[in-house]
Amino acid sequence: MRPGLTWFYELRLLLLAIIAGTGLGWLAGSPLGGFAATVSGALLVWVWQVRKINRWLDSPETTPPESFGIWGVILDNIYLLQRRNREAQNRLASALDYLQDSLASMRDAALIIDKRSAIAWCNESARSLLGVQFPEDRGQPILNLLRMPEFHAYLDSEDYQYPLQVLPPQEGGVCLEFEVSRFGDGDRLILVRDVTDRIRLEEMRQDFVANVSHELRTPLTVIKGHIQMAIDNPTMGPDHLQRSLAQVDAQTARMENLLTDLLWLSRIESMEHERKTEWVAVDKLLETLVAELRPGFQDREIELEIRTGYAVMGDVKQLHSAVSNLIINALKYSPAESPVIIRGFIEEQGYVIEVQDNGPGIEAGHLPRLTERFYRVDKSRSQATGGTGLGLAIVKHVANAHNAELRIQSEVGVGSVFALVFQPELVRGDSTETLQ
Ligand code: ADP
Questions:
Q1: pTM (2 decimals)?
Q2: Which protein residue has the closest C-alpha to ligand 1 atom 8?
Q3: Per-residue pLDDT for the chain (436 aa), expressed as one digit of tens each?
Q4: Domain spanning 279-428: CATH superfamily
Q5: Cβ(415) – ligand 1 distance below 6 Å
Q6: Which DSSP helix (H) or strand (E) runs through 252?
Q7: 395 touches ligand 1 (CB under 6 Å)
Q8: Domain 200-270, what fold?
Q9: Order of strands, edge to edge, in the sheet holding 187-194?
Q10: Euclidean distance between CA atoms 49 and 65, whole angstroms
Q11: Which residues contact 342 (CB under 8 A, 6 or more apart)?
Q12: What domain of life (predicted)?
């Protein structure tokens, strides 16, 4: 029933009771007594109803007492409000559970701190990333646990518009990014992620741009110098001019090689995850390569020792480029009188294509960085031989694209062996012998 109507009925009932009570009092000779008795009775009923409601409100989880009239409506409304409130609380609690569950399974560390910056909750990743444990560290001030001055200043500043990056104090440490958002009554949610890889990639990108610019600037400067000289000396003799033009030609070729290698490298990278479907016959590949290289290195001894009849699953153009880079390096970096040996054989790990030289060898400290773009052990020597500094980076990417391993063994004063090791499942033997 609508509250207005209930009031109307309640008032009507009261008035009727008063009229009836006063009438009965009048019949009994005391209308005022009848009136007073009716009002007192009504008041007593009201007080009794209020008492019932009050007792029920003390333990609201019990069912509400039976009531009538306006009191019944009041009780029903309180009960309804209570039920809605409980439902809203349940919804909020399950939303919070859901939120905590999702934060708990995140790879990023998530922490909730209260307005005094004390830890209220944190997920499992906070333990591995920050060493904060839950529930052990509940109530601990976060600033006591994370001893990073930059983070302290950031948290105190209360300006969380941009995330904060904290670089590790020493090389090899972890770089962290903090993001803070406010909610509730001064509570804050802190998300912390490990951005070491992202920062390293960004550094690599910047280094790469700087390196390419540097590699291009050197030949450009030489070319510009020769052109300027020709402009400044209109009477320059034909011999001198020829020598200048030969230099310009050599530097242009160097720039062209660099751009070709860069484009090729980026193409291999983009195809790295493409499935290979072609069987490449190793003996044919190596024989072709030696035949192609021999005219350029006529005075060099190139030996080929190969277990014939094997093929690897791969991309013939990429394999050709990788092995050719290894052979050219072996020839470039070893004395003219020493031989370069190319082998193809089977071992436990798979099929191996290796190139061995008796060059100067490479110090162990350089080996981990050798396949980085533009990394050179001896810069002047490498530039004198016309290398782009991308050869081994290409080999490494070709190896990755073929699930193969690039193995480098080198001893200073003895020589180097660069090998590509192909997994047995990607190798096919001849009709009489297979690896699988
Ligand atoms: P580059 O164009 O300079 O040869 P690479 O990526 O092919 O570039 O090789 C990187 C560096 O590794 C070379 O500059 C050289 O210092 C070293 N290196 C590569 N192969 C050999 C080798 N067979 N013997 C000695 N040093 C080598």
A1: 0.68
A2: 389
A3: 555 667 788 888 889 999 999 999 999 998 999 999 999 998 998 898 888 888 888 887 777 788 777 788 888 888 888 889 889 888 888 887 888 788 888 889 999 999 999 999 999 999 989 999 889 999 999 999 998 999 999 999 989 999 999 988 777 789 999 999 998 888 999 999 999 999 999 998 999 999 999 999 999 999 999 999 999 998 888 899 999 999 999 999 999 999 999 999 999 999 888 888 899 999 999 999 999 999 999 999 999 999 888 999 999 999 999 999 999 999 999 999 999 999 999 998 899 999 999 999 999 999 999 999 999 998 776 666 678 999 999 999 999 999 999 999 999 999 999 999 999 999 998 644 444 4
A4: Histidine kinase-like ATPase, C-terminal domain (3.30.565.10)
A5: no
A6: helix 238-270
A7: no
A8: Helix Hairpins (1.10.287)
A9: 119-122, 109-113, 187-194, 176-183, 164-166
A10: 9
A11: 286, 289, 290, 302, 303, 304, 305, 306, 323, 327, 353, 354, 355, 356
A12: Bacteria
Cβ of 370 below 6 Å from ligand 1: yes
Q: How many residues does the chain have?
A: 436
Query: Does any ligand 1 atom lie closer than 6 A to the CB of residue 330?
Result: yes
Fold match, 106-194 / 279-428: no
106-194 is classed in which CATH architecture?
2-Layer Sandwich (3.30)
Sheet arrangement for strand 405-411:
302-306, 340-347, 350-357, 415-422, 405-411
Residue nearest to atom 14 of ligand 1 (CA): 376
Domain locations in the chain as residue ranges: 3-96, 106-194, 200-270, 279-428
Helix (H) or strand (E) holding 190: strand 187-194
Distance from C-alpha of 155 to C-alpha of 116, rounded to nearest angstrom:
11
Cα radius of gyration rounded to whole Å, the chain: 43
Q: Which of 261, 328, 377 to mutate to test the pocket of ligand 1 (most atoms within 8 A of CB)?
A: 377
